[in-house]
Design a protein that fits this description.
This protein has one domain (about 20-260): NAD(P)-binding Rossmann-like Domain (Rossmann fold). The chain is built from 10 helices and 8 strands. α6 packs across α7 (about 135-145). The chain is an alpha/beta fold. Helices cover about 35% and strands about 15% of the residues. α5 (about 90-100) links the parallel β2 (about 60-65) and β3 (about 105-110). It has helices at about 10-15, 15-20, 25-30, 45-55, 90-100, 115-120, 135-145, 175, 190, 200-215, and strands spanning about 35-40, 60-65, 105-110, 125-130, 150-155, 160-165, 225-230, 235-240.
Length: about 270
């Protein structure tokens, strides 16, 4: 496959990708034909959406039910002062459309919920978890695991964060975090603070993992949790294994339908 297989403007836009043996024309065409669902258009979702758009992922779905507030603007860099009060998916979609005409954006102003999760996932190759709460993270894990859709996960708090990838061939999020802490014990970035640049770092890592998954380059963090400490400027990759008693990816799963799980409080399993 030669550069001539891409239009002239695409060859110019993605020239640095075409020069990479791990991407090249074939990889770029894969990206242009790929689809990614981003759950959350806030701190983590902003850099994810920015870079997936810049790198030419052909179809990007964005799910978020929130509106832009002034307190978002120190870290949610695809939204601006003129977007205050607008749905985040609206300003995010406007960013995508303005930035790269190769990309189709599909904004959905709604909460990622059990009754819509399966239908949403059917339309995408990959999910990026840019959510900011534990119930949504467990739901993304369960829905993706049941549907066989890989997903990238990250979380941030104060000066630290972590990122990992779940391909379906290794452990899942419930293997890593079997139970959610009670709501009263969960970190609260609004109360405890968050370094504005931190979601940019972790979101960029999420976008990196997503691109690697799509083009098949390198090794993703499947079975490894990459921890990042901004104050110490240190990273550590911590391996973790599949849980033989995992309720969804273990040999005797009890979760067969996300609508049977209570994704609130302690994200408890079905009564069965």
């Amino acid at each position: 496959m030669t550069d001539n297989d891409l239009p002239a403007d695409a060859r110019e836009r993605y020239a640095r990708h075409l020069a990479l043996d791990e991407v090249g024309v074939a990889g770029q065409r894969t990206l242009l034909e790929a689809s990614v669902l981003v759950v959350g258009a806030g701190g983590l979702g902003s850099p994810v959406i920015q870079y997936l758009t810049a790198m030419g992922v052909g179809r990007i779905g964005i799910v978020d039910d929130d509106v832009v507030e002034r307190s978002n603007l120190n870290r949610q860099v695809i939204h601006g002062e003129t977007d205050l009060g607008r749905p985040k998916v609206a300003s995010a979609a406007e960013f995508v459309t303005d930035y790269n005409p190769d990309v189709t954006v599909e904004p959905r102003q709604l909460r990622f919920a059990p009754d819509i999760a399966t239908d949403l996932l059917d339309a995408y190759d990959l999910v990026v978890d840019a959510s900011d709460n534990l119930p949504t993270r467990y739901l993304i894990n369960d829905a993706c695991t049941l549907a066989g859709v890989p997903f990238v996960h990250a979380a941030v708090y104060r000066f630290e964060g972590h990122v990992t990838t779940f391909t379906g061939d290794g452990p899942c999020y419930r293997c890593l975090f079997p139970t959610a802490p009670p709501p009263a014990d969960r970190p609260d970035c609004a109360a405890d603070g968050l370094l504005g640049v931190l979601p940019g770092t972790l979101g960029s890592l999420e976008a990196t993992e997503a691109i690697k998954l799509l083009v098949g380059a390198g090794e993703v963090l499947d079975g490894r949790l990459l921890h990042y400490d901004a104050l110490a400027m240190e990273t550590e990759a911590v391996p973790f294994n599949a849980d033989p008693e995992c309720p969804i990816c273990g040999p005797d799963p009890v979760i067969e339908d996300v609508t049977a799980v209570r994704y609130e409080g302690d994200c408890r399993l079905p009564d069965a």
